[in-house]
Amino acid sequence: MANHLSAEKRNRQNKKKKIRNAAVRSKVHTQERKLEEAIENKDKAAIKDLLSKTISAISSAHSKGVFHKRTASRKIARLSRRAQTIIGK
Fold first, then answer.
1. Domain boundaries, the chain
2. 66-89: per-residue pLDDT in tens?
3. I need a surface site. Which of 36, 56, 57, 81 has the fewest CB within 10 A?
């Protein structure tokens, strides 16, 4: 339990950030899951659409501080590489 006002405030802020970060992370995971399904079904139109949405969600999470820049970069690279195997160059 916090004994100082500043520590209590920090706890309140951390709770708010935890909720926001969980929502952002959940959005990214949902987009990734949809893209994976499209890749499995080899639906080229859906892959193109979902890839841009997924990259946007990951970049947004990075800009909000939820993902480290290298984590975001790695996720984007891996998803793009998997999508390109179906779409072609």
1. 33-89
2. 999 999 999 999 999 999 999 875
3. 81
